[in-house]
Input
Amino acid sequence: MGSARRQDQARPEKAGDGKRKRASSPNNRWAAPAVGFLLALTGGSLAFTGLGGGVGCSSEDAPPASRFSAPSGDAVGPAGTAVATAAATAQGSGSAADAQPTASASASAVVLTPDAPYDGPLLGAMAFQTPIYPEPRFSDQRLGYIRQGGKVPVKDKPIKRSNCKQGWYELVEGGYVCGKYATLDLEHPRVKLGVRQPDLAAILPYQYAYNRFHGTPLYKTLPTRDEMLKYEPYLVKQSEEPKKEKEEATEPEERRKGKHAPEAEGGAVPGSGDVKAEEAVAAVEKLDTGAPAPEEAAAEAAQPKPWWQQDDKDKDKKPVVTLAELEQDADGNLSKRMVKGFFIAVDKTFGWNDRLWYRTTGGLLAPTDRMWINKPPEAKGTEWPEDAKAVFFMLSDKGQKFELSKDQKSAKEKGKLARHTAVPLTGKTIEIGEETYRESTQGFWVRDKQGTITEPGARPSDVGADEKWVDVNLTRKTLVLLVGDKPVYAALISPGKRSRNKKKDHATPTGAWRIREKHVAVTMDGDGASGDLPYSIEDVPYVAYFKGSYALHGAFWHQNFGREMSHGCVNLAPNDAKFVFNWVEPRTPRGWHGVFSSSDHPGSMVVIHE
Output
């Protein structure tokens, strides 16, 4: 994704007490009990950067950064940090070998399957990204990492070493963690105040909220009323305008189509069902706004309006802004502003100052009345049926089943097929007029031009007969998982958008690479090309990097699978991305948020072709 940056690079902060430091304000005084309560809500003892600074799908061969170095100091928060690098080396060769740690983890490591019972001790992560080493010593080689608040099976006797006075903990599934950044005390504040752990049983690991307006602020801490009015001047206008009956009841077309639907998925975030824009607007009216003095109003009118405060006559014009400029207004409590279309990952929802708020997984705070909770697409691939020669995916909104006449010279409709339906095929085709029909294993026929079919290439010579690998067909826009020559799963994809304009050409590269690293979720962002707006999606789910910043990953923000949509990555529906993530190598041990391939545990081969 062009100029994408890396967010989650697991480099703990330098020495410090880990507490948030903020300039004092006469308008921001709380009693001690209130402070404790608010810190518990916002994770106030930890420092966060939150949204931004991620790595996206890039046309650049070189990844944006090298793998992080050994932690130093007493850092426990993610300030200035981001999810593990998508880089193989500082030079960014992009090959799997460049990213391989050579040392193996403990010889006594065992594999815990997802459903395997475990009642032994757990190690709680205290750093935003707690690194796991192949040996009980700090080095540039990592096996993976644990997110703050994560808990992993561990052997309860630390190994004493001079390089980590708290001792090294050996994980049950391999690797070592320094006790400076993790603890057996699961009630430790730095464990309890960590980010809500991903829900691996749900379609998506987190709930996501879509930003509806340009300029929505992301706060570092809960704002005072004065701060809300300072950073959100539209609140004054809202409180002065007469209420419009059922103003929020009429939904824009994109919402009715389900692109950014507001329904909560399974109530994953407590209280999210109570988030209503009209209630938030009513709450804003309670703010003590006051009228500006005439001289203040005149001075304010003379100032050029920022990019996110457009006049009605300019509301249809696309603002010109970059990611870096979103932080121009940052000061004591404002972290940055968001462009319409940004997504945040929701950690929790709570009320403050007569408004409802989201805390993001990056620790920043966003007002819910400026956002919608996103409903993930339900598209899903299929495990490969034993008798199928290929799989057809319906792409038409008016999909049909057909039956042929006895002489097979005509076809008539037999029923309907929903968009994205997977249909196993026998391999038999027939031409009727100018139309091609394909026979399904269930006996009905599908019209070829209404969809696409799987067409994997030959197994690469360096992939074993019993080895897992991934085939991505850019022409057919399909993905097939195979073990040797046997297909086991098929799904639709959305590859990169192609363009004759080089600045807007986001074509997915062709070639063969091994998966270098996997992340349960990682932030992706980047500046738009040739007048396009920047994008930012916090904690993109189920990411598997294979070349530089190119990855297989879940896409919950669109439903156009089978069409070109991405900035170069291979988009998968969340259901499919989760299946692929859990299937490909390297395996992600229980409780780990990210894992790197190694010489002992190489990544699965990804082959991308036309």
Notes: The longest strand covers residues 535-547. Helices lie at 32-42, 189-192, 225-231, 234-240, 253-256, 277-284, 294-302, 574-583. Confidence is low (pLDDT under 50) at residues 1-53, 61-103, 245-291.
